[in-house]
Every structure is written in C-alpha cells, then in structure tokens.
Design a protein that fits this description.
Length: 607
C-alpha cells in the first residue's frame, strides 16, 4: 500500500511533503520518511510509527531543500522499523516505493554478488541499487530508471530523487497509482490527487506501465514501450482542505454520523425524489441479454456485494455470484462475452479488485464500478461508474462508504428489474419510497448510541463474539464480525443463523456474546427459532430488532436494542449503524485506535 509523494518546488520541500503525507496516511501508517536535496546532497529523516513521530524528528532536525520525496508505509517486506522506512537510498539517489517488487530475491542476489550491501529487509532497496548500478555504467538518470523498470516484476509505483540533480524527479507506475500535479513553476508527484490538493488541482494520471520525467517546468510521459505519450491534465475535484474531525473524537464516529446525509446524497443521485422514480441508468450492456451477474470486491465492499445479491436476485430475477477479488482474479473464471460484472470499491485502488476488473475486460465482459473516489483507477477503467457519494472516508474501517454502496446496490437491483421487465412500475415506486425512508431511519437509529455504548461495555470483556443473521442480514452479520475484529482485535465470526446448528453451535457457552440481527423480514420467525437454540444452551444473546422483537422471541435476552419499525427490504442499510457503533465503542472502551487499527491501511494497493 503506502503513500508516496515527490515535490519539485520553490521554498522548503519537507514541510509540504509532510502535509501531503498526512493526506496519504490512510494508505499506511507504520513508519514514514522524507528525503531532500540540499546543495546537491541527499538528506533523509525517517521515523518508526505514525507520521507525528516523523514530524517531531523534523522539528528537531529540519531538512533544507526545495526538492524532495516522502513516504508513509504499510509494511510488506521487513518489519516497520526506522531502518526499513522509506526513502531508501544509495550514494547516488533516494527512492520511495508503493507496492511489491516480486522478483526482488533474484535481483538482490545478483546485486549482492556485484558487491552491493543491503541495509534493509525491504524489496525497495533493490530498485535503488539497480538504478545506481546503471548510473555507474554511465547512463543518465532517465536511461538508468528505464533500464531498471524493465527488470522489475510486480505492482509498484516509484519516485526517484538523484544526488546533484536539483531539477529532476522520475516516477513510474505499474499496477499502483501515480499522479502528476502541475503548479506555477513547480511539479508534484503523488499516489493520488488528494495528496497534491494543497499545491495544485491540475492533475494527470500515469497509465499502466507509464513512467515520467519531471522538472519544475516540464513533464514528459513515456509509455511501457518508451514512446513519448500525452497524458491529459484535468482539474481535479479533490478538495484542498484536509477533512476535519469536527466535534468528534474520531473520524470513524464522524463518518458514522454523516450517514443519513451521505446516503441521502447518494439516493438523490439515482432517484427523482419528486416523482419517487429511478432516474435513467446508462447500462454498459443490454440488461435483457444477461443470464447472470457477477459482483467482485474485497472486505467490507464485498459484504455490500453479498447484500446486493439478495436484492438483485429478488428484484431482477437474475442469478448473482459474489466473489472476493483475491480469489476471483486467479481462478480464471469463465466470462460471458458482453456479460456484466459489478465491482465495488471505496478507494477505487484496491489491487485485487482492479486486477479482476482488467481480467473481465480482457475477456470481453462489461463492467460497472460502484466506487467512491471518482478519479480512482477502478473508476477510470470501468465501462460505467455508479458513484457512491460518501465523500472522503478517512477512518480506516469503512462505514459511510459501505451504506452508500448498499444504496447503489439497491438502485442497481431495482433498475435492473425495471430494465428486464420483471419489476412493475408500481413496485418500483413502493421500493423507491422505502429506500428514500432510510436516511431518516438511520438518523433515528444514531440516537441509540448511549444504549449501544452500554452493550459495548460487555463486548469489550469478551474473547469471542458471534454475529447471526438471515437473508440480507446474514452478510451484515459478516460485516459486523469484520468491524469488531479489525477495530477491537476481538475474535468474531458472522454466521447465517440457520447454519448455526451445523457446527458453530458447539461454541455457545455462557462466555460468548451472540449478536442477533433480526429485522422484521419474512424470515424473522426462523431467526427467533435459532435464537431459542442459542438460549437453550445458555448463550448470551444481544438482540437488535424492532420494538416487539424481544417480546416475541420469548427467551432470556441479555441486551436488546430496539430499532424503529421499518419495511424490511432495505433494513441492512439502517441496521448497519448499530453494528458499526458497537465495534467503534468496543474499540474505544478497550483503548484501541479506532481510526487507524493496527496492521491495516485504508487503500490496499498490494495483493
Ligand atoms: C473494512 C474495510 C476493508 C475494505 C477493503 C476494500 O472496514 O474498510 O475491508 O472494505 O479493503 O477496500 P475498497 O472498498 O477501497 O476496495
């Protein structure tokens, strides 16, 4: 993952690099570093841990220089120590790298045989030494980088800074994003437009295999075949201001509370609110010709896909298969020519999802991207973009992007049903009305936060937690377990409530909380039966259901969260909020960092 930045500027580069890195911290935060050039010499400061540690070091030992590179890391090769922190350097250059160089072992052995001594455990250092070796043979920096790129396998973005070259940065993109920002007599490189937003909104994106030679006044893009190519600069919509927490303690809390507003925005993007009808949707293929639909995503986005499956199968009467992208991309799944695959991603940069999309396109499939970052690689590659309007999501655990993804899936399901002639106009109207009600219901549910916090007090004592749900509440149970695991580090599992008796019921004892997601849907009574099975074995039940659910369950319930009455169709959008708040408060009670859980990063650009 990792975030990288390069600045060819006027005035001190290091503080601006740190400013950009703050915007890239969502890509990794286990160490960070900056290198600048001052009077032709390379200088570096690096620090283990969060960016604030680097800031403190830089405050004590400021770096001079108007050109420099920076990095915030999510460790792949080598522990997150200061030694392994980027930039990595030789006596000729410094380099920052996002991604993985897969053939680094072979290249490392070759370089060791030539006498190079490695100071780190990273794959990146080989890039530094390979270019150094090419320079030693008399090549120019551009020739040396080009020769090196041809030898690297894997997915990476790189930016090189050269000793004695006060007006040159060289960047490259292969499988990991890199953007160029053009200022007034300044040039910037960065993992995304958000990082460069404080300096410029004129952004061009490197295409796959491109590399770029940048000076303050000019930029030359070359493609994989070393041809000079044109990459258009566009005005980027990425805002200049870094998102603020406002009165909230964490971005995650703020983002949970923003949900009524942002799902409202997303709904109004797709729905004509005055007519309570769907706006026309621009399909990349003829919906009538489809025999099935595939949905591919990772993590929380794949849970949105799983919930979407319930809705598409119901409203469009089309079989749907949902896959996690890391499996999909290597399974060589058969692709229907002209068939439809929906990719779901908040960041639009997730490496496995992006690679899966490429696979589908190469095999003649058509693609829709449900994506939150409109300038992302996935958005740019898709045939059609179905945007989620969640706004920047900073908390590493996805919350508002997830509920906006659910809205997009609901709309796609209804629109497909209409386009295929299997959903009547009247039913469209009824379902749209239910969807339009979700922001208000969500706002009501957020008021339950004090009650959720009480339940979180007991969860914080648990070693394991089980989440149960049926129907579309089953994938939400999976999402609940994922949220709790990643934020509190408590082991949690989500199960289809009906599957409990086929094994996991053996786990039930008086120590394990069982969280039952029980919206009043057609399978509610079955969920009650499963709850009774848990109660009969002394299980500790936490029920999230409507006002009468606890009464009807007629079993001992340890905690009950009374949700408002609602139509069941899109209940997962509303029931997502208590699930998120539970995980958030459990983490906070346990003293964990809710915005930046250990070992994670927001944008997973490595496979
Ligand atoms: C969990 C979470 C992750 C992401 C996953 C996909 O809270 O945020 O599981 O959902 O890494 O990321 P995107 O949606 O950016 O493709």
């Amino acid at each position: 993952m990792c975030g990288i930045v390069g600045i060819l500027g006027k005035g001190a580069a290091a503080p601006r690099i740190v400013e950009a890195l703050k915007r890239l911290e969502y890509r990794g935060y286990d160490s960070a570093g900056v290198a600048t050039l001052w009077h032709g010499e390379l200088h570096r400061v690096r620090a283990e841990g969060k960016l604030r540690n680097l800031e403190a070091k830089l405050a004590a030992h400021p770096l001079e220089g108007e050109i420099g590179i920076g990095h915030t890391r999510w460790a792949t090769h080598g522990k997150p120590t200061e030694t392994n922190a980027h930039p990595h350097a030789s006596d000729r250059l410094a380099v920052v790298h996002n991604g993985i160089i897969e053939n680094f072992r072979t290249l490392r052995d070759e370089l060791i045989a030539k006498g190079y001594r490695f100071a780190t455990e990273t794959d990146t250092e080989i890039a530094a030494f390979l270019v150094t070796d090419e320079l030693a043979q008399g090549k120019t920096p551009a020739e040396a980088v080009h020769a090196t790129l041809g030898r690297l396998r894997g997915a990476f973005a790189l930016v090189f800074l050269f000793k004695g070259e006060d007006n040159l940065l060289i960047g490259a993109r292969q499988g990991a994003p890199l953007a160029v920002g053009q200022g007034e007599g300044e040039m910037f490189l960065g993992s995304d437009a958000l990082a460069l937003a404080p300096f410029t909104d004129r952004i061009a994106y490197l295409e796959e295999g491109d590399w770029v030679i940048a000076t303050r006044e000019s930029v030359e893009f070359r493609d994989a075949g070393n041809n000079v190519v044109t990459r258009r600069f566009i005005k980027s919509p990425a805002g200049g201001l870094l998102a603020e927490k406002g009165n909230y303690r964490h971005f995650m809390a703020k983002e949970i509370h923003e949900q009524p507003e942002v799902i409202g925005h997303t709904i109004s993007h797709y729905v004509d609110l005055s007519a309570q009808r769907l706006k026309p949707f621009d399909w990349p293929c003829d919906p009538m010709s489809l025999n099935r639909i595939s949905i591919v995503a990772c993590g929380t986005a794949s849970m949105a896909g799983l919930i979407g499956k319930y809705w598409i199968e119901r409203f469009a009467r089309l079989p749907v298969e949902v896959d996690v992208a890391s499996e999909y991309r290597y399974r060589e799944p058969p692709i229907d020519k002209g068939g439809l695959t929906i990719f779901v991603s908040q960041s639009g940069e997730t490496a496995d999802t992006l690679a899966s999309m490429r696979y589908v396109r190469e095999h003649g499939g058509r693609t829709i991207a449900v994506v939150n970052v409109p300038t992302s690689s996935i958005a740019r590659l898709a045939d059609v973009v179905a945007p989620t309007l969640a706004g920047p999501e900073i908390g590493v655990a996805s919350t508002k992007a997830f509920t906006c993804q659910l809205v997009a899936m609901a709309v796609l399901a209804l629109a497909l049903g209409r386009a295929r002639g299997v959903l009547s106009e009247a039913e469209e109207g009824a379902r749209v009305a239910e969807l339009v009600a979700t922001p208000g219901l969500l706002a009501e549910v957020l008021k339950l936060e004090p009650a959720v916090e009480k339940i979180a007090q007991t969860l914080a004592q648990a070693r394991d937690v089980l989440y149960l749900g049926r129907g579309a509440a089953y994938p939400l149970a999976l999402e609940g377990a994922l949220k709790l695991k990643e934020l509190s580090y408590i082991h949690a599992e989500g199960y289809a409530a009906g599957e409990l008796k086929h094994g996991p019921i053996a786990l039930i004892d008086s120590a394990m909380p069982v969280i039952v997601l029980g919206p009043r849907d057609p399978v509610f009574e079955k969920t009650i039966s499963n709850m009774q099975e848990v109660a009969a074995r002394g299980g500790r039940i936490v029920l999230i259901g409507d006002a009468h659910a606890a009464e009807e369950a007629a079993v001992a319930i340890e905690s009950f969260l009374a949700m408002p009455d609602m139509a069941p169709t899109f209940a997962p959008i509303v029931y997502a909020a208590p699930v998120q708040m539970l995980a958030y408060h459990t983490a906070v009670i346990m003293g964990k960092d809710a915005d930046q859980p250990r070992n994670l990063a927001k944008s997973v650009t490595v496979e």
